[in-house]
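Human: If only I could read backbone structure tokens as easily as an amino acid sequence. Underneath my words sits a plain record pairing an amino acid chain with its backbone structure tokens. Take your time, and here it is.
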Amino acid sequence: MTRRRLLKLASAAAAIPLAGPLGAVRASTVAHRDLRFRVMRHGSPIGEHRVTFRPDGHRLIIETRVQVAVRVLFFTAFRFTHEAEEVRQSDRLVSVMSTTDDNGTLRQVSGHAVADGFRITGEDGPFLASGHLLTSNALWDSRIVRETRLIDVQHGGEIGLVTKQLGDEYVDTPQGSLRASRHHMITPYYAGSVFYDRDGRWVKSVLELRGEHVEYALAT
């Protein structure tokens, strides 16, 4: 299926209403605790995903760092790195900058708030997005499961998002086993499940990337 077809599917579908005891996940102060996940493939670690939060006056700076490397014998078959800095103020995106190395393909994205939205520049040039969207890195914000569009900080522009609640499951974390709400997500670039505890904290993901299934296991 082509990227254009995926974009049409994702943008045409509406997010499915949530239900159940943990369905009404909410953003809270818990969502602003630093996060570190081990990225696992077939039970073996292949990298990590970190999200750190830094208050700066009335602003909140969110830094995302992803490093993944798949090795076969003594060779690196695939490598992915992504670093981004997102600045939010009064719950609105003020600016974003990112660099991505997708197995040798380099991308840079930057954007800033303007009077009529959010201007983001990526591989396809500048694009005027809505000023009230979350970004594609905002899995740390449980409100993402209610969104249908995201600002794409890896490629630029906007992407569609489809979500569906799958129910509650228990997730093993460093703090013990926690009951979490599981939500299926589809974007043009990845699909899978994301898990949030009752406070809205991101505690696990199971994603399909490039035909491979990887698991995000909470490390801290």
Notes: Residues 3-218 form one domain. Residues 1-30 have pLDDT under 50 and may be disordered. The longest helix spans residues 3-12. The CA atoms of residues 19 and 97 lie 35 Å apart.
